[in-house]
Each structure stands twice: as C-alpha cells, then as structure tokens.
Write a structure and sequence with these properties.
Blueprint (H helix, E strand, L loop, with lengths): L5 H10 L6 E5 L1 H14 L9 E2 L2 E5 L10 E5 L2
Parallel strand pairs: 1-3
Antiparallel strand pairs: 1-4, 2-3
Length: 76
C-alpha cells in the first residue's frame, strides 16, 4: 500500500477474506495515520480494542513492520 487508510485496510480485509482468527499489525506511523483517518470518518469515536470489520488492528512494538506495510498475525 502507498499509504495506510481506513478504506485501504477495509478493502484489504475484504479482498483477502480475513477472519477474526487474525490481527493486523502496523508500523507506529502507519497505525497513527489509520487512527486519525478512522476518527475523521467516525466523528472522533473509536472502540477499544481498535477493530475494522472485526479484525483487530495493532501497533507494532517490535520494529519489524515497515511503514505502509501490513503484517498479518494469527491469533488463538
């Protein structure tokens, strides 16, 4: 992805047929951009945990996810 956006992540989830058995991890900058886009679309309201279409969106704390890349994590 060129830039992580709400519409881009939503389309990514749909196109890849992701289910709630996975979570998405994003670079901290990409995560912040997505949250700001989400807040704009949803009138400054956000749920915890942060989810889009039932998929939890996490901020990478390991330094392993590159900016504007999506890392899919299996959850148990």
């Amino acid at each position: 992805m060129d830039k992580i956006t709400y519409d881009g992540i939503r389309n990514f989830i749909i196109e890849n047929e992701l289910t709630d058995s996975v979570a998405i991890s994003l670079h901290p900058d990409s995560f912040d951009e997505l949250v700001m886009d989400y807040l704009d679309i949803n009138n400054n309201q956000i749920e915890r945990p942060f989810e889009i279409l039932g998929i939890e969106i996490l901020q990478d704390s390991t330094g392993s996810v590159q900016k504007n890349k999506v890392n899919i994590l299996n959850v148990v």
